[in-house]
Design goal:
With 215 residues, the chain is α+β, with helices and mostly antiparallel strands. The chain has a domain of 92 residues: TolA/TonB C-terminal domain, CATH 3.30.2420.10. Helix content is 19%, strand content 19%. The chain is rod-shaped and about 205 Å long. About 16% of the residues have low confidence.
Length: 215
């Protein structure tokens, strides 16, 4: 009897607890679902591109500057290999001699011989003799074109044998004159003599410019 009573009591208690739990579950309702905000996409505004400036009209041309650089007239010049060459003159014969009385003493001398008698070669007992000579320099341009020539140098030899007032008396090519005069001016002589005394003598010597086979 007690056993049946205990079972009935347990069953009644379970029934009451289950009814209470179901009633509580019904009141609270189904579980609420949390809503999440949807993802958003932010749009970036593209800046407006300003159009390029229109090209200037062809009518609006820049004003030209009134300036012109100086110009040299383009005049062609004809230069030949013989532009600087004087016409050739036949050289005097090797055996030529200066005629007596035809020697002219230069008036443009330095004046050192004023008041001194100057003798011609035909008036001397002993003519001046070279003791030292200098070979003239061959002008490069004349050598390049194988041009030869001769210069007759006029000068005076004093009683010491020194040369004065040398100048080109004549020449086949003017380009040879300066070098010939410069060389003769450095020459030295044993002075000429008349009546046993050294005297001032007027002389002329030919200086020939020739090219040897090896030059």
């Amino acid at each position: 009897m007690r056993r049946d009573l205990i079972i009935g009591c347990v069953f009644s208690l379970c029934f009451i607890v289950g009814s209470a739990w179901i009633s509580e579950l019904t009141k609270s309702g189904p579980p609420k679902v949390k809503h999440q905000a949807p993802d958003t996409i932010e749009l970036i505004t593209i800046p407006k591109i300003e159009p390029d400036e229109p090209p200037p009209d062809d009518d609006e041309k820049p004003t030209p500057v009134d300036f012109a650089p100086p110009q040299i007239a383009d005049v062609p010049q004809v230069i030949t290999d013989t532009s600087f060459v004087q016409p050739l003159q036949p050289p005097p014969p090797d055996n030529i001699k200066i005629a007596k009385g035809q020697i002219v003493i230069p008036e443009q001398g330095s004046g050192w011989a004023k008041g001194i008698r100057i003798f011609d070669l035909n008036e001397l007992d002993q003519i001046p003799v070279e003791t030292f000579t200098v070979t003239p320099t061959y002008p490069p341009d004349m050598r390049r074109y194988s041009i030869t020539g001769e210069v007759v140098v006029d000068f005076i030899v004093d009683t010491n044998g020194d040369v004065h007032d040398a100048y080109a008396f004549s020449s086949t090519q003017h380009e040879f004159e300066a070098n010939a005069v410069l060389a003769v001016s450095k020459w030295r002589f044993k002075p000429g003599k008349a009546a046993g005394h050294s005297v001032v003598t007027h002389m002329q010597v030919p200086i020939r410019f020739t090219l040897n086979d090896g030059e």
